[in-house]
């Protein structure tokens, strides 16, 4: 039985009840080479990730076009030059771009200087594809260093989608009274956690087997129903090498159908959501990030 819609604040534009942000992590072979450059000789395993650029990404683009959906693609800077034509198609179709460092670096393992250099280089790489829009950032892995918000602003980024601390956007302090808008996600809404698998090297570690396609779609649709009921912001993470197979692309198709059929979803890019949230100053003093500021102020310097 479907639960009744709960009364919610008027958070979203045009009287839309909830927001949906479809994101694509376009890491390609850097998903393996970024953490382990020595894997460059593993051509069979690397072919799994290269498949995303060859087949998966075009299928995703076609599906988004057929459903009239604008999305946000997060790209490591080092993948911009070799995939310039494909990323040009992404931008030409009206999708937004964001960065994931240059080579999926763990920001918490870099020095302050190294981190800023990587952020500036990745921002410049994106500018070679498009000079429009407000680029976002998504941590590849690891923790959020204390000064990362300020460095993102300095490097030219306007928002992030890296945290898991809420169901709606919030503002992360970025020094000197500034803040950066965070659009959080939940791990249940990621295709990689459900479907990624490789024997050696183990992807994921622990050798989980691939989940049932129908079960994953049902999970996603339950999250969709809950976000609509409470007026929240749903963030889906897709990976071309994972979701872009001939069978799994049908799951994306059917999920987008479910989104459109609600009739009251605001399907937007990350930049659109960040801009709206910043302008309308939603949120309150009891947000978890405020608790973190009180308990551990140095972590949000």
Summarize the structure.
This protein has 11 helices and 9 strands.
Supply the CATH class of the domain at 15-73 and 158-300.
Alpha Beta
> What share of residues is helical?
40-55%
DSSP, total strands: 9
Major sheet details: 9 strands, mixed
By oligomeric state, this entry counts as: single chain
CATH architecture level-2 label of the domain at 15-73 and 158-300: Alpha-Beta Barrel
CATH topology of the domain at 15-73 and 158-300: TIM Barrel
Strand content: 5-15%
Order of helices and strands: EHHEHEHEHEEEHHEHHEHH
Unreliable parts:
none
Straight-line N-to-C gap? 46 Å
Rg, rounded, reads 19 Å
Count of DSSP helices?
Answer: 11
Structural class: alpha/beta
CATH superfamily of the domain at 15-73 and 158-300: Glycoside hydrolase/deacetylase
What does this protein structure show overall?
This protein is α/β, with parallel strands linked by helices and 301 residues long. It has a domain at 15-73 and 158-300: Glycoside hydrolase/deacetylase (TIM Barrel). The chain has helices at 30-33, 43-67, 84-92, 112-127, 148-155, 191-195, 213-230, 240-243, 248-262, 270-280, 288-295, and strands spanning 18-25, 72-75, 96-99, 136-137, 159-160, 170-173, 179-182, 233-238, 265-267. Strands 1, 2, 3, 4, 5, 6, 7, 8 and 9 form a 9-stranded mixed β-sheet that branches. The model has no long low-confidence stretch (mean pLDDT 89).
């Amino acid at each position: 039985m479907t639960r009744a819609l709960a009364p919610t604040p008027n958070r979203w534009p045009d009287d839309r009840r909830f927001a949906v942000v479809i994101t694509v992590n376009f890491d390609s072979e850097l998903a393996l080479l970024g953490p382990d450059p020595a894997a460059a000789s593993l051509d069979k395993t690397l072919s799994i990730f290269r498949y995303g650029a060859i087949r998966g990404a075009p299928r995703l683009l076609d599906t988004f076009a057929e459903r009239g959906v604008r999305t946000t693609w997060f790209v490591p800077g080092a993948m911009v030059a070799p995939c310039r034509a494909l990323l040009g198609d992404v931008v030409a179709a009206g999708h937004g771009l964001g960065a994931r460092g240059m080579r999926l670096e763990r920001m918490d393992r870099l020095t302050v200087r190294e981190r800023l250099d990587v952020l500036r280089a990745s921002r410049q790489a994106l500018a070679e594809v498009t000079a429009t829009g407000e680029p976002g950032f998504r941590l590849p892995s690891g923790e959020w260093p204390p000064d990362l918000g300020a460095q993102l602003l300095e490097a030219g980024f306007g928002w992030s989608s890296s945290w898991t601390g809420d169901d709606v956007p919030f503002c992360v302090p970025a020094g000197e009274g500034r803040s950066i808008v965070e659009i959080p996600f939940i791990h249940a809404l990621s295709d990689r956690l459900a479907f990624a698998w490789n024997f050696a090297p183990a992807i994921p570690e622990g050798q989980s087997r691939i989940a049932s396609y129908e079960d994953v779609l049902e999970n996603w649709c339950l999250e969709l129903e809950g976000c609509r009921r409470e007026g929240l912001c749903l963030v889906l993470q897709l990976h071309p090498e994972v979701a872009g197979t001939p069978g799994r692309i049908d799951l994306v198709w059917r999920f987008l159908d479910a989104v459109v059929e609600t009739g009251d979803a605001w399907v937007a890019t990350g930049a659109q959501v960040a801009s709206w949230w910043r302008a309308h100053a939603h949120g309150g003093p009891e947000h978890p990030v405020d608790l973190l500021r009180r308990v551990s102020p140095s972590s949000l310097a």
